[in-house]
């Protein structure tokens, strides 16, 4: 028999698989081009050409044992140095390779971080709506997830509600901006206020409260919006970064954790991240891709492709009566559902071959998430389906 | 403050780091070529040329979004199918892609497996000497490691002692052949006897006892020795495979778990491995290297290089009086120490610039591990140092 923890998770995951199977079933009936799958966050924009060039150069220039070999569990020192310099230049920080641990994507990074921080029963605060995996990551280390209810007018962190949730058990707060599922970019003002609240609570409680900023979507932003760099606002802060979306490399599992030098217990934490990377079985971030991204720090995917998708979908949905905040980042829209039951709404949408994810999966019922990292053509073709869906509920 | 679990681990890991720093210190004084570091299991034999060819072909032939994109958390279905066919042909089994989950090396594989199997307090049995990380992997999921004492004449699993250790709490048994640290390949007879004991105990206790064979060294064997394929001997068995050593790709984190179809709770277990891969933060085994190894299933590193190292080192050490079983696989020797205190012995060895790992780290004091995956030249140059060390204890 599988473990008790996994029993529940396997049951949940079969819902996701059911959605996937439904997509395949609909495709078989109506043709793949007539099924509008807005459920997956799999980047459709091509990785930059630099990736291929970098791989070839590395294979031709460096020794195979170096490229594919073991290194320090925290990653190649020269790669971490290059990343640190890049960050320093871009964000006017003052970090070195010692602040960085290369990780198997942001997911691997968050896990080694929570392994490092959490004793059983410690609390981790998230702001609804939030990426559902945070619940599992915290549960991996027997922490308790504490959910701050959403502010559904702005979808910025609800700071008033946060204050009441912080206790002596609070070990960490996770934020995610640009946000999955709303696409909202948290403003500098909110980051400053958040930092102030956490600092004051640390003083009041005599504890360290670590702020973890999960940033796989940092580079996927529109309208010249700036994403505040959290290390500059709060002492006890980490960033979990990933190249999954910024370079369209989600399958390669490459990212890093960066930590503020002056945080509480910095040395212990960095040592622990190194060991956690090893003992959780990551051992190290994949070696070739550590070297690849070091050669591609300035590279970017073509964000205008996502922006065009956002614009057509946002404009159309709001025109036909859906209420939705205009996202300035990531590749998600998070419209309100015309009925309170978002799960029922997603079921109904299937009759128009629309595959959507209920907001409940993100701790925010009454909404749906649309991943618009699909082709522009498919989005255009899906617009009539949304019209039919809207009509069903007389959204207007 | 870091978590209680990590506190102890960070303390232990600083011992390993101290060894590494000692190596650097000695190198600075005596020159790198005069320091004989037998402490690391980092393959020095080059990956086969096919790896580079396969990478180039894949980059030129397939779409970048497929190569570097997300796939099922268990891995690409076509890759798993190719591996299953390869296994079926080589070992006369009858498995499909459904029996396989691609993992971030064997370390990632063992972790998702233990996450799947263990409730807190469940026991996992290992045979001393054993790879020290098993203790950490089991501890990650609050299991209890139960150590069967070594049989230091053969270094095969001590089956008599095993019988007494099995209880209703026994969830799994881990074996590792070719073995780290002894290099011993477990015989077919021992595998048959082991399977018999486990089956009988399952019947007696009314439980399922899963056998996990950790096999990163399967292809690193000498003298035409055969490594029994455990799926054929025991129903409830898994193999954790890795390409780290067989193709010299340890940094790339690529391997798989294969499970017997007729095992207890097969469907639940495979679903759970899939979900565990996701929620522990691996998400999936690195995508490009899944496709690469699928093109290199017949490829091999040049094992004769390791064999030459084994022969010169084994012959010399036994000639000067060390007692050591002749290993038939992996790239380790595990000689007895002339004094009971193996840690003290390793300390003493440093005066001759020899870096060795005490057997205590593998649950088997009174021995040392030598990783001979270093250059032949360095091994030859180190022989006088071993002579001086032997003389110190008048080994002869």
UniProtKB/TrEMBL annotation, chains A, B:
InterPro entries: Aminotransferase_I/II_large (IPR004839), NHTrfase_class1_PyrdxlP-BS (IPR004838), PyrdxlP-dep_Trfase (IPR015424), PyrdxlP-dep_Trfase_major (IPR015421), PyrdxlP-dep_Trfase_small (IPR015422). Belongs to the class-I pyridoxal-phosphate-dependent aminotransferase family. Coiled coil: none annotated. Its cofactor is pyridoxal 5'-phosphate. CDD domains: AAT_like. Keywords: Aminotransferase, Transferase. It comes from the Bacteria. NCBIfam families: PRK06836.1 (NF005305). It is an enzyme of class 2 (transferase). The lineage of its organism: Bacteria, Bacillati, Bacillota, Clostridia, Eubacteriales. Residues 37-381 form the Aminotransferase class I/classII large domain. GO terms for molecular function: pyridoxal phosphate binding; transaminase activity. This is Aminotransferase. Pfam families: Aminotran_1_2. Gene3D superfamilies: Aspartate Aminotransferase, domain 1, Type I PLP-dependent aspartate aminotransferase-like (Major domain).
């Amino acid at each position: 028999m599988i473990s008790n923890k996994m029993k529940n998770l396997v049951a949940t995951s079969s819902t996701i698989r059911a959605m996937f199977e439904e997509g395949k079933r609909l495709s078989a009936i109506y043709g793949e081009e007539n099924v509008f799958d807005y459920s997956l966050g799999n980047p459709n924009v091509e990785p930059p050409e630099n990736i291929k060039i970098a791989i070839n150069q590395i294979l031709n220039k460096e020794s195979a044992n170096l490229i594919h070999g073991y290194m320090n569990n925290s990653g190649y020192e020269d790669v971490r140095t290059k990343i640190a310099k890049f960050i320093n230049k871009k964000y006017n920080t003052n970090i070195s390779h010692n602040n960085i641990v290369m990780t198997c994507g942001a997911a691997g990074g968050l896990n080694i971080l929570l392994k490092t921080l959490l004793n059983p029963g410690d609390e981790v605060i998230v702001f609804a709506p939030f990426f559902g995996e945070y619940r599992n990551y915290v549960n991996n280390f027997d922490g308790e997830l504490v959910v701050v209810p959403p502010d559904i007018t702005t979808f910025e962190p609800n700071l008033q509600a946060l204050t009441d949730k912080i206790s002596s058990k609070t070990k960490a707060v996770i934020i995610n901006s640009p946000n999955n599922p709303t696409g909202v970019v948290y403003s500098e003002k909110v980051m400053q206020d958040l930092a102030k609240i956490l600092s004051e609570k640390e003083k009041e409680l005599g504890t360290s409260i670590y702020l973890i900023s999960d940033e796989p979507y940092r580079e996927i932003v529109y309208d010249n919006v700036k994403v505040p760099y959290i290390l500059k606002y709060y002492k006890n802060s980490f960033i979990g970064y990933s190249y999954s979306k910024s370079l369209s490399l989600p399958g390669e599992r490459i990212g890093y954790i960066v930590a503020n030098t002056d945080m509480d217990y910095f040395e212990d934490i960095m040592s622990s991240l190194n060991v956690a990377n090893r003992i959780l079985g990551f051992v190290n971030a994949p070696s070739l891709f550590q070297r690849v991204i070091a050669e591609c720090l300035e590279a970017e995917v073509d964000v205008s492709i996502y922006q065009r998708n956002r614009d057509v979908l946002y404009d159309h949905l709001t025109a036909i009566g859906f209420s939705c905040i205009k996202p300035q980042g990531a590749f998600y829209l998070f419209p309100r559902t015309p009925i309170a039951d978002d799960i029922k709404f997603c079921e109904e949408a299937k009759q128009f071959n629309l595959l959507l994810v209920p907001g409940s999966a993100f701790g925010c019922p009454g909404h749906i998430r649309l991943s618009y990292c699909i082709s522009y053509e498919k989005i255009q073709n899906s617009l009539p389906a949304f019209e039919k869906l809207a009509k069903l509920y007389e959204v207007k």
